Amino acid sequence: MRPASAETTAYRGRFAPSPSGDLHFGSVVAALGSFLQARAQGGEWLLRIENIDPPREVPGAAASILHQLERLGLCWDGEVVYQRDREEAHRAAFAELKNAGLLYRCRCSRRVAGPGRYPGTCAQAQLGKEVSGADRLRVDNRPIVFTDALRGAVSENLAERCGDFVIWRAENWPAYHLAVVVDDAAAGITEIVRGGDLLDVTTRQIYLQQCLGLPSPAYCHLPLALDLDGAKLSKQTQAAPVSGLAAERVLSAALRFLGHPPPDSLLGATPEALLAWAVAHWRLALIPPDDRCPAPADLA
Ligand code: GLU
């Protein structure tokens, strides 16, 4: 492990897994893509365990993720950040939004609010904090735009797309969007390279950065790895853990998935040798243009 330098570096990336299960092929792709994008630019690569959702946390998963990353040769810089230790910063950001009059209490259950656009049922109700519920952030009726390094220009109007969204949960802990935005800014992350499933929520995070006066990092969403049924590989759908497979096998498959098949001369090479080759040859332009790609059958 290299110490993270105190000075600002030109490039700082990160991998931010939730400890809701073991590392699967989809998370290896996100880890490897963000690692290579950072190392190819001589940048730092930080690791943050996003353990703010206790019911979804699987005991032992955080330790197992760290072990798997080390086994794959994906060595991070500095200390691992555990998101739950960052509660004070999350609460401070919450207070800032509250004082700016941007939040309101919402008692709609997830079931009532549904997965689609929130219609603003509680927006004018002025419910007090004694009413149990979540806190929602009022969104603007204007486009939020950014350019993804792989997906190109994205423009979304949050009022039309998702409506006001939850940033503090009824269980009294921060929602993912608030925690991720606050923690990436505190760590000085300059580019976020992650799975394509999160492309959809990026404008929400950019809007939140704007509300909090935080800089927006660059974004790069990698193709999403699909299982044999064409569904996203995820810990929830019991994607096969990579722990039972040789590190070289997993790395070679992830490199192929990202459009960087290692040459035959590296057959049987160590993870370190594979990664050194990949850092030297890494080019975003080689990554397949599809936003979703099947994972290799034995890794799905
Ligand atoms: N913790 C999230 C996950 O495991 C990823 C967050 C991010 O990369 O922004 O899906």
How would you explain this protein's 3D organization?
The chain has 300 residues and is α/β, with parallel strands linked by helices. It has 2 domains: 178 residues, Rossmann fold (3-Layer(aba) Sandwich), CATH 3.40.50; 92 residues, HUPs (Rossmann fold, 3-Layer(aba) Sandwich), CATH 3.40.50.620. 30% of the residues lie in helices and 17% in strands. It contains 9 helices and 12 strands. It has a 3-stranded parallel β-sheet, covered by helices on one side. Helix 1 packs across helix 8 and helix 6 crosses helix 7. The longest helix is centred in the first third of the chain and has 15 residues. It is elongated, with a radius of gyration of 20 Å. The protein starts with 11 loop residues before the first strand and ends in a 6-residue tail after the last strand. The model has no long low-confidence stretch (mean pLDDT 94). Bound molecules: glutamic acid (GLU). The site of glutamic acid has 7 residues, from loops.
Briefly say what this structure is.
With 300 residues, the chain is of the alpha/beta class.
Average pLDDT rating: 94
Please state the structural category: alpha/beta
Tell me about the biggest sheet? 3 strands, parallel
CATH first level of the largest domain: Alpha Beta
CATH homologous superfamily classification of the largest domain: HUPs
**What ligands are attached or bound here?**
glutamic acid
The outline comes out as elongated
User: Would you list the SSEs in sequence order as H and E?
Assistant: EHEHEHEHEEEHEHEHEEHHE
Percent in helix:
25-40%
User: How would you write the strand order of the largest sheet?
Assistant: 1-2-3
Low-confidence stretches: none
Distance between the termini: 30 Å
Tell how many strands the DSSP assignment holds.
12
The tally of structural domains comes to 2
**How many helices?**
9
